[in-house]
Specification:
Blueprint (H helix, E strand, L loop, with lengths): L3 E9 L4 E9 L1 H7 L11 E2 L6 E3 L13 H14 L12 E5 L1 H4 L3 H18 L7 H4 E3 L2 H16 L18 E5 L3 E6 L3 H6 L5 E6 L5 E12 L3 H16 L6 E4 L7 E3 L14 E4 L3 H8 L31 E5 H7 L3 H4 L6 H13 L2 H9 L9 H22 L17 H11 L6 E3 L2 E2 L2 E2 L2 H12 L12 E4 L7 E2 L15 H14 L3 H16 L3 H15 L23 H4 L1 H6 L2 H4 L79 H10 L11 H4 L10
Parallel strand pairs: 1-5, 5-6, 7-14, 11-13, 14-15
Antiparallel strand pairs: 1-2, 2-3, 2-4, 7-8, 8-10, 9-10, 9-18, 12-13, 16-17, 18-19
Helix pairs in contact: 2-4, 6-16, 9-14, 10-14, 12-14, 17-18
Length: about 700
């Protein structure tokens, strides 16, 4: 087992599926290398941008044809993961597919058929660990998605590691989490102590495990609003426009949430409005009116059976913004940063500044916006469709944040900061030290790692691999805080895994590359690259032996009588290639071993036999056939191994001699005559006596001429 453990998770969203690959140190290795304070932390996960791949559309589009989801969708993602995870670790690497809002909208029978096909296909076409389809391949509720996101945010911000350094007041040290996709929105946070006690039955108990094996428990509230993602909200908004028009006939509808002058169909396709058989939306670019018309979509007036409620009549414990500081991901980040990347990149969320920027953007004429998109005024990521949608998305986000969830409408950029103030980096810095004190901040990556719910799921799995410090410790996972209910375990096994004596060449090469990156000396970097190449090239024994045979082939072309070095030096048989290669020469040169060879019956016309990897030697053997011999490692205890029974001799395990390869002094195959063809000459050579003179090795001496028939 190498020092790294790996995990693969597929985020099957409404618009596409994204595969994430993570790795972390083997728990035993991590505990061995950890400092005392690090033993109080969760396992440290790593990933890279190249470890992630997304394809479109989502798996929900295969609801009517589940049999196609494997070859047309999953295979590309599985191949990507298999190219990253070391081959010798695939069987120990878990794979998960967690479907979210898109698949939640399918009929139950379609969900079941689709998930069953996904699991079956993954089991047939990969060796990833997938022992339980129900646990590894599932549609996760929005509450679970929010909980995983909460884990990821607090893990990256440092809220778990050292509570004393993240004291937000009132004994609170964790951060709230907000997520918004295309179909749904989630919230997850740990209420203050008063609210936690008052609504204890509404919380989830989350149990993880630090490297020292101690349990780390948290009580978190999480809920989801299906239909409150930006795409579903837009559909509800357009329906409201149609209802307000009192007619379904084809005509133009004024849309304040589209840039001025832009015309689209109800589905969002840009059109000039001529000869269209369905209603056309005409943008007016009035952002204040857009805010007013999107507000009713919050459904703040829906009946609330369990006070207090936020949106759609769903119960949420009161949020104490003095201690509950939220981070928002997905649309919260894209809508506040993507279009305004050039002017607003990495700055903290300021309601006043943000609303002013959106109003200015949406009031521009669509023709001018289109030209600026082509000129990449807002960066390369902003295309025409993004610019078309941003006015509605921004109004929806502002309404959800401030009127829905209740985030205070305050400007949080300090006047003392200059125009180059980098708020997001300050957030991360504050979070590492004492925790940022802003009520809301949109984030995308922290310390180079994306804040994604998939990370939270894998952190939970990695924590479950840490052996518990007490036998009576509960399992890692989450379930009801009070009362009976299903406790969903992380799915990992905490049985101790031995520490490998050596890392695999792939892992060692990667580690060396990372260390070389951190050095500034060009010579050191070049040395590391050479070492990595050599290690990669020779990581398999077959490749080492093939290279060695090539070197010997060149050495055999030396002048007759020149001294033979016999495998000394770096490329000698006893150095790079191990003892199994280095002793062939000594065994055959001993004479006694060579004398035990007998010549098998071989067709005299067969000249196509060759060394097992050295290629054909037609034209170099004078028509002489090659007896074969199977060679095994000396370390296994058998010098030579056969398939048809052993022949008594010097204990070498020689078998049926028609399948025997004889090796010369350099370890290459010796060409010998068949028994019939050599019969006359054997008498001349004294073949009846077992002497060194008749040794096949000596027959290959460069001072001797080929035998004539």
């Amino acid at each position: 087992m190498g020092k790294w453990r790996w995990g693969v998770i597929l985020d099957a969203g409404s618009s596409g599926t994204r595969v994430h690959v993570y790795r972390w140190l083997n728990a035993a290795r991590a505990r061995q290398d950890a400092k005392p304070d690090e033993l109080l932390s969760l396992p440290k996960l790593e990933t890279k941008s190249s470890y992630t791949k997304k394809i479109k559309p989502g798996v929900s589009t295969f609801g009517d044809r589940p049999g196609d989801v494997g070859p047309e969708h999953l295979q590309e993602l599985l191949d990507h993961a298999l190219n990253i995870v070391p081959e010798d670790q695939v069987k120990d690497t878990p794979i998960f597919l967690m479907a979210t809002a898109g698949v939640r909208l399918l009929e139950p029978i379609q969900q079941k058929a689709l998930l069953s096909e996904i699991c079956s296909y993954a089991q047939k076409h990969t060796d990833f660990s997938l022992p339980d389809c129900d646990l590894h391949i599932q549609v996760i509720p929005g509450e679970t998605e929010g909980l995983y996101g909460w884990i990821a945010a607090n893990y990256l911000l440092g809220g778990f590691d050292n509570p004393d350094q993240h004291n937000h007041g009132k004994g609170h040290h964790t951060y709230g989490f907000l997520d918004m996709g295309g179909a749904s929105a989630q919230i997850a946070f740990a209420p203050n102590s008063t609210e936690a006690e008052k609504h204890a039955n509404d919380l989830k108990l989350l149990r993880m495990r630090t490297l020292n094996g101690d349990a780390a428990e948290y009580r978190v509230f999480t809920t989801t609003w299906l239909g409150f993602g930006v795409n579903q909200a837009r559909e509800r908004y357009v329906e409201a426009l149609m209802d307000a028009s009192y007619t379904k006939a084809a005509h133009e509808l004024l849309d304040p949430c589209l840039p001025s002058g832009l015309k689209t169909t109800l589905k969002g396709k840009v059109t000039d409005g001529v000869d269209i058989s369905e209603p056309v939306l005409v943008g007016t670019g009035l952002f204040d009116e857009c805010l007013r018309q999107t507000y009713p979509l919050l459904e703040k007036d829906a009946p609330c059976a369990d006070q207090p409620c936020l949106l759609h009549g769903q119960h949420v414990p009161a949020i104490d913004f003095e201690v509950n500081h939220f981070v928002g991901v997905s649309e919260y980040w894209h809508t506040t940063h993507e279009v305004f990347e050039m002017a607003h990149k990495d700055k903290t969320y300021d309601f006043t500044t943000y609303q002013r920027m959106v109003k200015d953007f949406c009031s521009e004429e669509w023709d001018d916006i289109s030209e600026n998109v082509i000129a990449e005024k807002w960066g390369k990521k902003v295309d025409a469709k993004t610019a078309q949608e941003v006015c509605f998305k921004a109004s929806w986000l502002i309404n959800v944040l401030h009127d829905g969830i209740g985030v205070p409408r305050i400007g949080i950029e300090k006047s003392t900061h200059g125009s180059g103030y980098n708020g997001t980096k300050e957030v991360a810095a504050h979070a590492k030290d004492k925790g940022f004190l802003d009520p809301f901040q949109a984030v995308n990556k922290i310390d180079g790692m994306e804040v994604s719910w998939t990370l939270g799921k894998m952190v939970l799995y990695a924590a479950g691999q840490v052996p518990p410090s007490a036998p009576e410790a509960g399992p890692v996972g989450f379930g009801p805080n009070i009362g009976a209910g299903e406790f969903q375990e992380a799915g990992s096994n905490s049985n101790p895994v031995p520490i490998g004596e050596e890392d695999s060449w792939t892992e060692a090469a990667e580690d060396l590359a990372e260390k070389a990156h951190s050095r500034s000396t060009p010579g050191f970097l070049l040395f590391m690259l050479i070492l990595i190449f050599v290690g990669y090239f020779f990581r398999k024994r077959e490749r080492r032996m093939r290279f060695y045979r090539g070197v010997n082939a060149l050495r055999r072309n030396r002048r007759p009588g020149s001294p033979r070095k016999g495998g000394r030096g770096f490329f000698g048989t006893g150095k790079l290639f191990g003892r199994s290669s280095g002793n062939y020469e000594r065994v055959l040169e001993d004479g006694e071993a060579a004398n035990e060879f007998e010549l098998g019956d071989v067709d005299s016309d067969d000249n196509e036999h060759s060394d097992s990897s050295g290629g054909s030697r037609i034209g170099r053997t004078s028509g002489l056939a090659t007896p074969k011999m199977n060679v095994v490692n000396f370390d296994s205890g058998n010098y030579f191994e056969g398939t048809a029974g052993n022949v008594e001799g010097v204990g070498l395990g020689l078998n049926h001699l028609s399948n025997v390869n004889a090796f010369d002094r350099a370890g290459l195959v010796v060409r010998t005559e068949s028994r019939e063809r050599l019969a006359p000459n054997l008498q001349m050579l004294g073949a009846g006596r077992r002497s060194r003179t008749g040794s096949p090795t000596r027959m290959k001496s460069p001072l001797m001429t080929p035998l004539e028939e």
